[in-house]
Design brief:
Length: 305
């Protein structure tokens, strides 16, 4: 009785096993699981109680959390030891001709480029209402970038949101470099086809910190409620781990430039492979802390899978 009951079970298992092998031979992926886990890279700045950037920290000084789950740090390098790929996004719309704002933006970009180290690279992009134009990519010499900056002129309206939506595809950068975008604009959005909140999401997808420098006019931006477009520039900086600067002239512009330069030199490149799997397209919240130290950190708020 026991033997006869066992035979059908063995036969059934054999048929299932053979059919499984046949299916696997016909479709090799039938019994394979492919998991795409990519490196998540962060630009992290540590700041003390006086608002100063803190250098000389070690990998063990940082802890990374994704959706409140601890992550192992797999890549770490201080900004002082890491090359920088810096993209300058220059607003060349007609309103930038007021108060010589475009002239100041060109001067600032040239000074930034002149201060780069030998292993650092720069790219320049410009926008108005005719789309985003690459003036010089990361392979362009610094001398050529300076000449091309001098040829910029103000025209048309401001398509800031459209430019931000297009930018992620224009930032190839080196995988081993710290990447950042310095945006020079008066923030007067009036020509884009997409909404500014969509521009915020697109900027976050670029996965690099944004440092918007907005040119202010005393009669327009220093009194009354903050303009919505300027408030969004500040939010873009916060979401991507950068800093927002509102400047009213050459002196304040110079202070902003020095602050951004110091920030990049003092930042850390931190990377990890996520331990959890999320649905493609979902936003994963990221948090970086310095356990046991009275420091706060600044980095992007998360990333899209």
């Amino acid at each position: 009785m026991r033997r006869s009951a066992l035979v059908p079970a063995i036969l059934l298992f054999g048929i299932w096993s053979l059919s499984g092998r046949a299916a696997a031979q016909d479709d090799p992926s039938a019994y394979s699981l492919s998991v795409d886990v990519r490196l998540v890279e962060l630009t992290v700045t540590a700041i003390d109680r006086r608002g100063r950037c803190v250098a000389n920290l070690k990998q063990d000084d940082f802890a990374v959390f994704e959706e409140n789950q601890p992550q192992r740090i797999d890549v770490f390098s201080p900004g002082a030891d890491t090359p920088v790929d810096l993209a300058y996004l220059v607003d060349v719309s007609g309103s930038m001709a007021l108060d010589n704002q475009l002239g100041l933006a060109v001067w600032a970009a040239k000074v930034f480029i002149g201060r780069l180290r030998e292993r650092d690279r720069a790219a320049v992009l410009a926008f108005a209402d005719a789309g985003l134009e690459t003036i010089g990519d990361f392979g362009t010499s610094r001398q050529q970038l300076a000449r091309q900056l001098d040829e910029l002129y103000a025209y048309g309206k401001t398509g800031l949101a459209d430019a931000l939506a297009t930018l992620p595809g224009r930032l190839p950068g080196r995988s081993e470099a710290l990447r950042a975008v310095v945006l020079l604009t008066d923030g007067l959005e009036n020509a884009s086809n997409i909404a500014m909140d969509q521009a915020l999401r697109d900027a976050a997808r670029s996965e690099v910190p944004f440092f918007p420098i907005a040119f202010a006019r005393a009669d327009r931006d220093r009194s009354g409620p903050p303009r919505q477009d300027l408030a969004l520039l500040e939010e873009i900086a916060r979401a991507t781990g950068g800093q927002y600067h509102l400047v009213g002239g050459p002196a304040e512009l110079h202070v902003a430039m020095r602050a951004i330069e110091a920030d990049l030199r003092c930042s850390y490149r931190v990377g990890y492979y996520p331990t959890s799997l999320g649905d493609r397209g979902t936003f994963q919240r990221v948090r970086v802390v310095t356990p046991g130290r009275a420091l706060r950190t600044r980095t992007r708020s998360g990333y899209f899978r």
